[in-house]
From TrEMBL:
Secretion signal, residue range per the UniProt entry: none
Protein name: ABC transmembrane type-1 domain-containing protein
Transmembrane intervals: 56-82, 102-127, 203-223, 288-309
GO MF term set: ABC-type oligopeptide transporter activity; ATP binding
Region (Disordered): 1-36
GO biological process: oligopeptide export from mitochondrion
Domain of life: Eukaryota
Pfam families, A to Z: ABC_membrane (PF00664)
Main location per the UniProt record: membrane
A GO-annotated cellular component: mitochondrial inner membrane
Membrane topology: Multi-pass membrane protein
Domain ABC transmembrane type-1, chain residue ranges per copy: 59-367
Length: 435
């Protein structure tokens, strides 16, 4: 098992990696650690590069997601009325009630289709445009940097980081964020509907909901953390592969293939071991969550039946009665019915599921917000030499074209003690080409 091997152990087994490749990998790690310390930007700054039209689409998407979330509790109300409709004593009333509920279901279907279409289209459009602008500005900023910047940072990691960050931003601000708003809204409206129909049962079942939410939240958080760890390991492995292919001649001349393969394998083993470890924990948590969920439903059915029985014993109008002429009198609408109990149970049941499913969306939004902060920090970088800025520098009226270097000393920033030029003198006359 090589997942826990230290670098020196890898060198012993696979051979040492050339110093050039090691230096580049360390630079990538340093730059990655530095960027991770960036503080997330405020919510108002997240969309600073979006146009007013994009912000209008965002508001429309949030409104559509809210309506879409409210549609699920509304469907549960219809379902409860269907159950009560089947218990009506008059056949004609049963048919009329069920037909009305069927039409309402059709209307809710069209309503959900419209709201979810608007929700998905708006969030995806805004996220796509925002990612495009960030990627464009990010790339332009990189092109404006001088050579010293690329000496201090890993070129392979810069390209991989640009693509990875923008994909995470688009993923976190897009459809996932809209779904998270929709699901959390469904939870809030579901609790309100449950309290309205049977508040006693709602309070009892709601005591179990935090446990289920905590388990689902832990599962989602664990999955997100594992994905981040795996992504870091795979990113480092990809950086090593990119550097190796880019400097394959140097690598081959120094016979460093074995060492690079060893380091690449260690990083892959780390990602694999992390995935295996969290998969078992995730399985246990999902099993516990299933037990809590079905136990909560059983508790709701038992207590709901007890409430209906108590209502029937306490109030005569909560029982079916007949008049002297034999006409059936149905229970009063103020009494707790089977439909009320099922509305309450399913509202809390689906509400807790919705809140648990919303957690990954909010986690993706949080991660995207962090990536935006890193991207904004890099976009704000100012290069001492900007090749795209034509306002700086002196414009000479008369240019002879002769160049002369006197006693030039130069060393790369990452290797200041190793001078490439020591007292170099060079004269290039006008009109002469030097390579």
């Amino acid at each position: 098992r090589r997942g826990g091997m230290a670098p020196q152990d890898v060198d012993k087994e696979y051979g040492s990696v050339p110093q050039a490749e090691q230096g580049v990998s360390e630079k990538g790690a340093k730059s990655s650690n530095t960027s991770d310390e960036t503080k997330p930007v405020s919510l108002l700054e997240l969309y600073q590069f979006n146009t007013p039209r994009d912000k209008l689409l965002l508001i429309l998407g949030i409104f559509a997601a809210t309506l879409s979330g409210a549609s699920q509790p509304a469907q549960l109300i219809i379902f409860g009325n269907v159950l009560n409709g089947f218990n009506l004593g008059d056949t004609d009333k049963v048919v009329d009630q069920i037909n009305l509920m069927a039409l309402l279901y059709v209307a809710m279907g069209f309503f959900a289709m419209i709201t979810m279409t608007i929700q998905t289209a708006c969030f995806s459009t805004v996220a796509g445009k925002q990612t495009f602008r960030i990627r464009e500005m990010y790339f332009q900023t990189l092109l404006q940097q001088d050579v010293t910047f690329f000496e201090k940072h890993n070129q392979g990691s810069i390209a991989a980081s640009l693509m990875e960050s923008t994909l995470l931003i688009q993923d976190g601000f897009g459809e996932k964020f809209g779904s998270a708003i929709q699901l959390s809204t469904a939870f809030i409206f579901g609790i309100g509907v449950a309290l309205y129909h049977t508040w006693q049962l709602t309070l009892l079942m709601f005591g179990v909901v935090p446990i289920a939410i905590a388990v689902m939240g832990s599962t989602s958080s664990m999955i997100t953390t594992a994905e981040e760890e795996s992504a870091k390991a795979y990113n480092s492995a990809g950086s090593i592969a990119s550097e190796s292919f880019g400097a394959i001649r140097t690598l081959a001349s120094l016979t460093g293939e074995t060492g690079v393969i060893g380091r690449y394998r260690v990083l892959l083993d780390q990602a694999k071991d992390a995935g295996i470890a969290w998969s078992w924990k995730e399985g246990v948590l999902r099993g516990i969550n299933a037990l809590i969920t079905w136990g909560m439903n059983a508790l709701g059915l038992w207590f709901g039946a007890w409430l209906i029985a108590q209502d029937m014993r306490a109030r005569s109008q909560c029982n079916y009665q007949t008049t002297d002429s034999g006409e059936l009198i149905e229970p009063d609408d103020s009494c707790i019915s089977g439909g009320d109990v099922m509305i309450c149970i399913f509202s809390i049941f689906f509400g807790s599921i919705n809140l648990g499913q919303a957690a990954p969306g909010f986690s993706a939004f949080k991660l995207a917000r962090h990536e935006v902060s890193k991207a904004f920090a890099k976009i704000a970088l100012v290069s001492p030499i900007d090749p795209l800025d034509e306002s700086k520098g002196a414009a000479l009226d008369d240019v002879q074209g002769s160049l002369e270097f006197r006693n030039v000393r130069f060393a790369y920033p990452m290797r200041p003690d190793h001078e490439v030029y020591t007292g170099m003198n060079l004269t290039i006359p006008a009109g002469k080409t030097v390579a």
